[in-house]
Amino acid sequence: MTYVHANQLSDVKEKSPTYVAIGSFDGVHLGHQQVLRNMVASAAANGAKSAVLTFFPHPKRVLQGLQGRYYLTTVMERVQQMADLGVDLIITQPFNEAVQHTRAADFVDQLCRHLNMKQLWGGYFSLGYKREGDVTFLRRLGQEKGYTVQLADAMVAWKDELVSSSRVRRSLGSGDMVDVAGCLGRPYHVTGPVVMGDQRGRTIGFPTANIEAWSEQMLPANGVYAAYAWLGERRIMAAANVGQRPTVNGSGVSVEAHLLDFDGDLYGQQVRLAFVQRLRPEHKFSSLDALKAQIALDVAEARVILTADA
């Protein structure tokens, strides 16, 4: 799917009539997907382009001073996921002090000037400084500026509960990867290069790839998971560990994966690790022999789960 990516709104000089959705869209979950598909279809039916203006960093990170791991996808993964839904133009607008203090009318002027905006899509949202640009304000301004406001229904349920980014974060925090995948419509994954670890796994017969995931992306709860490791287009079954490796006095949270039936050098390669199901919490074992025995059980269980999932 061909799309255009712009790093900020001022970089765009789109003269075609454009339908625009504004939001963080972190995770691009099922609710987001429904909104964007509807907008793309409506734009195409009316001879317009479709565009998304999303923010990075997340406004909550700036306004509430949130620290630590927070995001559900990297910025470019978010862009690609929206492009896969057919969006023509994706703008990753920096959310900085200037944007934070932009008045709603001025922000709308920029949307009209740079995008030739004809329809604004969103939920019950507000734009501009101190959220002054509510739906009533935006619709009134639209009569003057020549655009309409389309309230998009993002109320999508999975297993009788509404899908939301906050629900995904809660389920990640408890290691419920089945719920996470249900809300996203895909398994949750992290991507990063394979870096040198302490190579202890090799000494006990279970070599692992240490994946350097983005430091701002949320990780599943500490524990052992059945997972898939993707090397380009090749998918390999894996047993993955997220945690601090207490048995070997590890420090800091690491992401490691033992690739089943694989023998090769992965250092420096990009690996995408998709989590399927949590097998158990992380434990401290009495000895390396006890750890080795448990890993053998974990690998066997992961193989059964992933074989059934294939």
Can you describe what's shown?
The protein is α/β, with parallel strands linked by helices. It folds into two domains: 4-155, Rossmann fold; 175-309, Riboflavin kinase-like (Elongation Factor Tu (Ef-tu), domain 3), CATH 2.40.30.30. 33% of the residues lie in helices and 27% in strands. The protein contains ten helices and 14 strands. The chain has helices spanning 30-45, 59-63, 75-84, 97-100, 104-115, 135-145, 165-174, 177-184, 200-203, 288-309, and strands at residues 4-6, 18-22, 49-56, 89-94, 117-122, 148-151, 157-158, 161-162, 188-195, 209-211, 223-231, 234-243, 254-259, 270-280. It has a six-stranded parallel beta sheet. Strands 9-10-13-12-11-14 form a six-stranded antiparallel beta barrel. A two-stranded antiparallel ribbon has the order 7-8. Helix 6 links the parallel strand 5 (117-122) and strand 6 (148-151). The longest helix has 22 residues, at 288-309. The radius of gyration is 22 Å and the shape is elongated. 36% of the residues are buried.
